[in-house]
Amino acid sequence: MNKIVFLSLIIFALIAIPIANAQLGAPAYQKLTQLIIDESENIQAKHVIGVSNSPVSVNLFEGAITDSITVTNEDGQKLEFGIVGMGDYGSITIFAPDKNTIVKYNLENMFRQLDNILTLNIGYPKPFSIIFSEETELIFLNDVIIELVDKKGISINSGGYVNVDYYSEIPKYMEEVRWEENKFDVKIITDSKIDKFNFDQESKSISFQINEKNKFVTVTIEEELLGGPYTILLNNEKIKYNKSISRENYVSLSMKPQAVGEIMISNSEYNDGLTKITSNNTLAIESESTPNDYFIWLVLGGVLIIVVIVVIIIMRKIKK
After folding, report:
1. Residue 60 has what pLDDT?
2. Residues 6+ apart with CB under 8 A from 167
3. Which domains are present in the chain?
4. Distance, CA of 272 to CA of 203 (rounded, Å)
5. 70-73 and 101-107: which strand pairing?
């Protein structure tokens, strides 16, 4: 009887609370917080909650569809719960979960699509992970490339908001180059059209033309081809890029050029080495002449000071 009264009071309190972000119960201990994205870009949220002897609250992800919420214990039994706040940032209260509890629900209207790029901007105040479908090979997390390879997803260990971009269909360009007696494949992934691909053995560089700006460009090569570290130029000016190891002996270089034109990727040690030789020769010539000039001026200054002192002494003697 007491339990029925207690539950009735809690339900009444949940209905009566007018504030969208209000919570009833202590924040739940979340063993797992996860977003699962299928091949059709449907998103399901999953929270695994630890045992508690009192009511606990669980924040929902933005975009939660409250009609889809299910709460079960680890044995599959449905549990009673209350919803607090019907907006984008609601929460639920679970009444004294005496076993591990699984909360599931769907999210809606979370993706933004521009051309071939899908963008997900999402956040949560606690650590959470995002699991992608098997078709998703690479993503850009806050513009940093991550190749999933044999991994299923990513973990946001400190929580907070993240921006995730990935291709709905991956556009690939494959080129083969020769260096000495070896053949290498160069893979370029981008929505921009690629022209004038070239590999220059003498400068140890790859170049190609891009015809659209603000498009992700990812180049995957064997490390042996250029050797690294790398310099990337857009129309002869250095641009920022991100580097990742896609698999053993392969490296991926990703950039987002802000203009159309020629991209050139080269070994920075090789090119910097040539520059340093020229610079050192120039400095060596200057270093031979500079000390001599300085010494001459120093001697002249000393002589002048001595002359002035002598003149002052003579003038004083004459006055006496």
Report:
1. 95
2. 116, 117, 118, 138, 189, 191
3. 2-167 (2.60.40), 172-271 (no CATH)
4. 11
5. antiparallel
Place of tokens 């090119």: 271
Amino acid occupying residue 69: I
pLDDT string in tens for the chain (320-residue length)? 444 434 443 444 443 333 334 456 789 999 999 999 999 999 999 999 999 988 999 999 999 998 999 999 999 999 989 988 755 568 999 987 888 999 999 999 999 998 899 999 999 999 999 999 988 989 999 988 898 877 789 999 989 999 999 998 889 999 999 887 889 999 999 999 999 999 998 888 999 999 999 999 999 999 989 887 899 999 999 999 998 876 778 999 999 999 999 999 998 765 544 333 222 222 222 333 334 444 444 555 666 676 666 666 666 666 55
Report the C-alpha gap between 261 and 60 in whole angstroms: 45
Tokens of 295: 């010494």
CB contact set of 45 (below 8 Å; sequence gap of 6+):
33, 34, 35, 36, 60, 61, 64, 103, 104, 105, 106, 107
Instruction: Say if CB 171 and CB 212 are below 8 A apart.
Output: no
Return the DSSP state at 9: H
Q: Are 110 and 122 in contact (CB under 8 A)?
A: yes
For tokens 């990742």, name the residue.
Answer: 244
Give Dmax (Cα) for the chain.
124
pTM assigned to the model: 0.70
Residues in CB range of 94: below 8 A, 6 or more apart: 25, 28, 49, 52, 55, 56, 57, 58, 71, 79, 80, 81, 101, 103
Q: What is the pLDDT of residue 282?
A: 23
**Residue 288's pLDDT is what?**
33
Which tokens in the block code for residue 296?
A: 């001459």
